[in-house]
Amino acid sequence: MSLLSLANVQVAYGGIQAVKGISLHVDAGELVTLIGANGAGKSTTLKAISGLHHAGAGDIRYDGQDIRTLPSFEIARRGLVLVPEGRGVFPALTIEENLAMGAYSRTDRDGIAADIEEKFALFPRLKERAKQTAGTLSGGEQQMLAISRALMAKPKLLLLDEPSMGLAPIMVQKIFEVVKEVAKRGVTILLIEQNARLALSISHRGYVMDGGLITLEGESKSLLDDPKVREAYLGETA
């Protein structure tokens, strides 16, 4: 059974039908990517899954349960956690305080402390700046913090929205090394990423979204080899 499945999901806001009836699934243990041009409806899809946007129609099932009408905090409490585009860290709080906020629904104080140390091991740069406020960090450091904060909730399913946006190439490489490591540790991931080549190179399967619809799907390697994908998203011509 799929950990996450969408069937004919439609989302409208501001009078615009951003998602026009899409179906996809993510199985436990998979790293699945959703690629497409700006405005294709990718971020809206993740927001609908996580409860930040209301899906007007269709079926969203997570871990066997219908979550389409649940509030976002309840969805997060069940282990489905979003790292939003733009990071969304708390700028006036320290790195340590941001990480603690990620564990707001947990009561195991010793486990929380151990998990903070684990995130510092994953991102040593955060440990060096543990008492620094998040608003003073670079974009890459904020992305490290946003991912670490999400992992503090011990998610079963992690939604990543454009984790490499605006980052220097060396920082992109570090972020994606960690994404692969997180997946290796058993966290299921649905990834939206502007760097289609990089996203497809680390994922098991992929979906291509265009104009609010899924237009292609398949194993990531087959999508990397698809002439239409290569021309539209990898900058190559036949």
Entry summary:
By secondary structure, this protein is of the alpha/beta class. The chain is built from 10 helices and 10 strands.
Q: How is this structure best described in words?
A:
The chain has 238 residues and is an alpha/beta fold. It has a domain at 2-86 and 155-233: Rossmann fold (3-Layer(aba) Sandwich). Helix content is 38%, strand content 27%. The strands form 2 sheets. It has a 6-stranded mixed β-sheet, sandwiched between helices. A 4-stranded antiparallel β-sheet has the order 2-1-4-5, with helices on one face. It starts with a strand and ends in a 5-residue tail after the last helix. The mean pLDDT is 93.
Quaternary state of this entry equals single chain
| Number of strand elements | 10
Which series of helices and strands comes N to C?
Answer: EEEHEEHEHHHHEHEHEEHH
CATH superfamily of the domain at 2-86 and 155-233: P-loop containing nucleotide triphosphate hydrolases
Class of the domain at 2-86 and 155-233, according to the CATH hierarchy?
Alpha Beta
The CATH architecture classification of the domain at 2-86 and 155-233 is 3-Layer(aba) Sandwich
Mean pLDDT: 93
Number of helices: 10
- State the distance separating the first and last CA atoms: 39 Å
Biggest β-sheet: count, sense, barrel?
6 strands, mixed
Low-confidence stretches: none
Beta-strand residue fraction:
25-35%
The global form is globular
| Class by alpha and beta content | alpha/beta
Per CATH, what is the topology of the domain at 2-86 and 155-233?
Answer: Rossmann fold
Strand order of the largest sheet: 6-7-8-3-9-10
Percentage of residues assigned to helices: 25-40%
Gyration radius (Cα, Å) is 17 Å
